[in-house]
Amino acid sequence: MCRAPFGHDRVSDMVGPRTVQLLASAVTAAGMVATPLNAQGGVARRLLSSVVVGGLFATTTSATVSRWGSVRSLLAATSTAVGTTWVEHVGTRTGRPFGAYRYTDALRPQVAGVPAIVPLAWFAMAVPARETAHAALGDRSNPLTRVAGGAAALTAWDLFLDPQMVGEGYWRWTRRGVYRGIPLSNFVGWFASSLGVMTLLEVLLPAEEPAADLVAEYGFMAAMETVGFAAYFRDRVVAVAGGAAMVPVAAVAAIRLLGRRM
Questions:
Q1: Contacts for 244 with CB less than 8 Å, ≥ 6 apart
Q2: Is the CB of residue 68 less than 8 Å from the CB of residue 8?
Q3: What does pTM read for this prediction?
Q4: Where are the domains positioned within the chain?
Q5: Of 63, 55, 59, which is closest to residue 35 (Cα–Cα)?
Q6: What is the pLDDT of residues 153-178, one digit of tens each?
Q7: Which of 88, 108, 131, 208 is deepest in the core (most CB within 10 A)?
Q8: Nearest residue to 177 via CA among 107, 101, 84, 103
Q9: Residues 137, 145 contacting (CB under 8 angstroms)
């Protein structure tokens, strides 16, 4: 009997992870909808931040297990979490690679001065970003373009993330920058760090056909964040900047996936 290598299982054989993925997606969506209905900087929003990130992490992890198996998924999630915790810890101590910033005590628990949900968020969006870049690149998808494209797609998400989290008081910049108080060095640091994350994923999660559910997850986040900032947070600068960075990539990826299937 031929067995799939290194814990690889097909979605059709993984009812458990698929169920978790659907439930976690619903929790994530509910948390995102509820967030702007509560006061900025309040306890409810702090709790909802953990709900959204936890739901997003569970969605991505269950999809990754279905796609690549539990062993590879565990290695990818753990390695990404450890690596990004270290990068964030160094960042708060040295100002590199993001610029000078510090976390407040708003988000708990913390590991090495970094809120525990932060490394979860890195992994939660890194895999969807990588698969979205993989799909959008089409025939030009190879290890180098996937790493660079995935890093760009992940950095695009931070155009939404950082303004929202700074507004909530979860972290603070020593010097105000040009983009909603955030220095441009932050996005340079995000791209550099994302290159490392994408390289790790390239090693641990072999590229196959782009995962449609992970591409849909990235597209869902792009749409929800764009609408949220435009209609509820009432910040059209962020809505336009983040939407312009995320939505086209998600749209091209979706169109090319549909083209493959047709």
A1: none
A2: yes
A3: 0.91
A4: 5-261
A5: 55
A6: 999 999 999 999 999 999 999 999 99
A7: 131
A8: 101
A9: yes
